[in-house]
Structures are given as C-alpha cells and as structure tokens.
Specification:
CATH class of chain B: Alpha Beta
Number of helices of chain A: 15
Oligomer: heterodimer
Distance between the termini of chain B: 12 Å
Number of strands of chain B: 5
Distance between the termini of chain A: 19 Å
Strand order of the largest sheet of chain A: 3-2-1-4-10
CATH topology of chain B: Rossmann fold
Strand content of chain A: 15-25%
Largest interface: A-B, 18 and 15 residues
Shape of chain A: globular
CATH superfamily of chain B: Cobalamin-binding domain
Structural class of chain A: alpha/beta
Order of helices and strands of chain B: EHEHEHHEHEH
Number of strands of chain A: 15
Helix content of chain A: 25-40%
Helix content of chain B: 40-55%
Strand content of chain B: 15-25%
Chain lengths: 392, 134
C-alpha cells in the first residue's frame, strides 16, 4: 500500500485519514501519544512507508512568543499576522517606544521576535532593548527589522538570528522568511518534547502544527465543500478556538500570499479552558438574552452535563463572532456583514446539530448586526479540512 | 526625501490619491502611499517606520475635520523630529466659512494647510518649506 496516511494529533482526539476515510480516536492520557497511536492503528502504521505518513499536531501546546515592535500598525501587526499564520497560539507584545514601562513576562518565552523600520531607517533600537531582554527568560531570538540596526543588535544580543525584514521597502508585509523560521522552530520544539518526538520514528516528513495546516487548506476548501468567498472557518477546540478568515473581510494594510489569515482565542475552549469561557460569557451583555433564547438559565454554566456542554458550545460560537465583530475592539475586526459562509470544524461538529448552529448564528446576526438572515453554515462533520492542507 | 501620504477617514477618493502619489514621485520624493480609508494612527506609525520627512494627508469628502482633531495629542505621543505635517483637499463641509478652515487645521497641528488649492501649487509650497528648513 503506497497511499498517504495522514495523522492529526489533537489535545483530546487523534484523527487518522487514508484514502478518503477518516477515523477518530479518543486519546488515552495514561499512555504517551506514540504508544497510544501505535496501539490503536498498528496495522495501518505497519502498512505504510515512513515517506507516506504525514503528521500534524496541536498537542504539544505550540510556541510562546513575545513580539517587540516599533509601531502597532506595521511592525507589531505584521509580525502578529505571520506568527498566527505559522500556527503560534500564545503571543504577547511590547511596543518598543514604551518598552521601559512594559511589564516583563515571568514565564519562559520560546521565541522573541524583534521588528521595526524599513531597511533604510537608522537608529531604531538602542540600549533599552538589550536592557529589557536581560530581564526576559527566552530560548530563541529573531530579528526581522531594519538592516541598519543589525550590527548594533548583533553586538549586544547573544545568539540573535537575523532574517529578511518583514516590512518591505514599500511598507508592505513580507512573510516568507519569518514564517519558515517559526514553522521550523515548531518542529524543533516537537523534537524537544519526549511525548511527541517519537513520532519521527514513523515518518520522515516534517511534523507541522495543525493550525498552520488548516490555514494552508483554505484555498482548497471550495474544491470539497459548497463554500462561497468570503468565508470563515471556526475551529472550536478543547483548549483554544481558531478563526481562519478571508482577507476580503478585513479593511487594513496587510496583503498576504494565501489570502487567508488566522486568529486565536486562547481562552475560549470548551474543555481545558472551560472556566475562562464561562467567565467571558458571564461578562457579555448579550449572553443572558441568549440563554433565555436557548430556554436555559444561568445555572447551566455551572453544570457538567451533556446539555451544559451543548450550551457552552453554542455560547462559544456566539462569543467568537462577537469578538471579531465591530462591537468589540481587538486585534482584528471582520466585516461580518459581507460574510457568505461559515464553516465550523473541530469537536463542536460532533456535538451540535445543524439546526442548533443555524439558530445561534441567526441569533447573533439578528441581535448584534440587526440582519434578518445569516450566512450559509457548513459543518465539517468528518473533521477533514486539515487533510486538504496536508496534501501537497 | 520621504513622504507618507493617503486619504484620511472613510474617504475612498482613490483617483486624487493616485494623482498625489504620481506628482510626488515626479518631483523626486520617495512615496509611501497608504491609500484610501486610512486612520490617523496609521499615518503616524508609517512616518515612524519609514523615518519620513513629510506626512501629506488628503481629504476630499470633508471628513478630515473630525478625523484630524486628535493630531496634537497623537503627535505628543511620538518622537517626531522635523516632520512636516501637511493636509490638503476639500477640508470643510456644508456652510463652513473657508476663512476659518486654515487656522482651524493649523490649530490641529498641521504646518501646511491647503483648502481647495491646486495640487501643484500646494506641492510647490511644500518644496519651498523643505528648502527653507535646510
């Protein structure tokens, strides 16, 4: 057998796809990932050559990132965009002109990204940067700003990796070098994690992060599903919720190659980050109306039942749409008024019915946007979107 | 010399924006055109990222009055050395007295203000100002 075997290691399930058939397995947390996978899919793994096995994973938590940038509208915005599209979940930012007032992160940072200025600009960074970095506990540091600052930074910062500036001479985004660096770093991170690195025993191919693979699949979704651009893909998982969106939905200065970007809500999952989801829900002015619409009371948020999980998932859909709407100021604002399709993927598609999802989205569109109709909603029941991105 | 330009606020007068871009390039400026629908903060950030000498904001639908009100506050938050702040186009709406417009925008923090003035005349004045600053 020489057809491809695709494996996605999630925080709760792992999924195995071969010749259009997708199987899901609940993870046994008493065993490490490799043993669990080998036990459940022994025959399949034996039947495939290492070069035919492709793996993506979101189970190792991803890289934590600190981005230090010169301005919000360009340096920080471009670097955040590239980091999200590279599959990174945890991003903290520091605006360089205010670096002396910025708090220092207490936890270990996997990678610090420093960015600022087009290549012809001089004297962007000074002693304030090494002084701040001295207090930060980080493993890697990469510089993607003006060329003119390279000698100074190389002199003052140890192990600095210098890549092509992410800001072009015309002030546009240039993503390739940083994106490759971050995806390679993700692989190195996996190699450093005992639980996952054994997976390299069954494949010779690079293991990518699942969000990166899902983002790569977006340009191919219309070949498999009846979606119309502009669309969003919402992946509500156990720990985080991702939104992948067409750039047509955003009015800003970024133009990326793929045309699709990603945004993460790291505290809006329905299992591992359930508590913060409930906290966010309770602080939303529309949620009580929504609960009434769903014929449940606030007490449901404290329950642990199948019904409570369904309600939480419905709340998660509402909150995610709310957080990217114009009613909530955040990193990105999507023009949901022109949205044509919403694709829902992740564990949510196994729990909620099409009617329940339609109902909640229509509630959002009526209540928040004052529309009488909602975009077309598609459920990725088989959770197969990731397989479109892994096929190269 | 570097110039950051664009159309401020919810204004999509792209033709005027292109004409300004072309005219500036013909005069030998290095142009960073942020296009239409640009917020004031983006203009300021672009000046910082490019170390521009001039910020040239245009406005055709009269919205500049609302959008540029906070220029002084924003300027105080950045470290602009000798940047020339310039605005031009159709800067007023309705029955506004044209005599009041120029002082109003100067008070907002602009060095050069051109209300319904020919583009080339405005750019001549810009060049003269830059020359005088040398």
């Amino acid at each position: 057998m020489n057809s491809k075997l695709m494996i996605d290691i999630g925080s709760t399930y792992f999924k195995v796809a071969r010749e259009g058939e997708i199987e899901q397995y609940f993870r046994d947390f008493n065993r490490n990932i490799f043993d669990d996978l080998s036990g459940k899919c022994a025959d399949l793994l034996k039947a495939c050559r290492p070069e035919d096995i492709h793996i993506c994973s979101s189970a190792n938590g991803g890289l934590s990132t600190l981005i230090i940038g010169l301005t919000n509208s360009f340096s920080l915005k471009y670097a955040i965009n590239i980091a999200f599209n590279s599959g990174i979940n945890i991003i903290d930012t520091v605006l360089y002109p205010k670096i002396e007032q910025e708090p220092v992160p207490t936890e270990m940072i996997d990678v610090v990204i420093v960015v600022g200025g087009i290549d012809s600009v001089e004297n962007v960074f000074d002693e304030k940067l090494p002084a701040y970095l001295e207090k930060v506990n980080y493993q890697n540091i990469v510089y993607v700003g003006t060329k003119k600052s390279v000698p100074f930074l190389q002199e003052h910062i140890e192990n600095l990796v210098v890549l092509e500036n992410v800001i072009s001479d015309k002030l546009k985004i240039r993503e390739e070098a940083l994106k490759t660096y971050l995806t390679d770093l993700y692989q190195a991170d996996i190699m450093g994690k005992e639980d996952i690195k054994q997976l390299y025993g069954i494949t010779v191919n690079q293991i990518f992060s699942t969000p990166y693979i899902v983002n790569r699949s977006l340009s191919r979704i219309s070949e498999h599903m009846d979606v119309a651009d502009p669309f969003i893909v919402v992946d509500i998982g156990g720990a985080t919720t991702d939104i992948h969106y067409s750039r047509d939905l955003v009015n800003d200065n970024i133009l990326t190659d793929s045309g699709y970007d990603r945004l993460v809500f790291k505290k809006l999952g329905v299992f591992k980050s359930r508590e913060s989801l409930v906290h966010t829900a309770k602080n939303n002015e529309f949620v009580f109306e929504l609960l009434e619409h769903l014929n449940v009371t606030e007490n449901i948020l404290e329950e642990y039942s199948e019904k409570a999980t369904r309600t939480l998932m419905q709340l998660a859909i509402f909150l995610v749409l709310y957080k990217v709407s114009k009613h909530h100021a955040s990193y990105i604002e999507l023009n949901l008024e022109i949205l044509n399709s919403i694709v829902l993927t992740g564990g949510i598609t196994k729990v909620l019915t099409q009617e329940e999802v339609d109902d909640i989205v229509l509630f959002f569109y009526r209540k928040i946007l004052h529309f009488h109709h909602a975009p077309k909603i598609l459920l990725d029941h088989n959770y197969e979107i990731w397989t479109y991105g892994i096929k190269e | 010399m570097k110039v950051v330009t664009g159309v401020v606020g919810n204004d999509i007068h792209v033709v005027a924006n292109r004409l300004i871009d072309i005219s500036l390039e013909e005069r030998g400026f290095e142009v960073f055109n942020l296009g239409v629908n640009t917020y004031l903060e983006e203009f300021m950030d672009a000046v910082i990222e490019t170390d521009a000498d001039v910020l040239l904001i245009s406005s055709l639908n009269g919205e500049a009055e609302g959008w540029c009100r906070d220029l002084k506050i924003l300027k105080s938050q950045y470290d602009f050395r000798d940047v020339v702040f310039m605005i031009g186009g159709n800067l007023g709406v309705g029955e506004m007295d044209p005599e009041l417009i120029v002082p109003k925008f100067r008070n907002y923090g602009f060095d050069l203000v051109f209300h319904q003035v020919d583009l080339n005349e405005g750019l001549d004045r810009l060049e003269a100002t830059l020359e005088a600053r040398k």
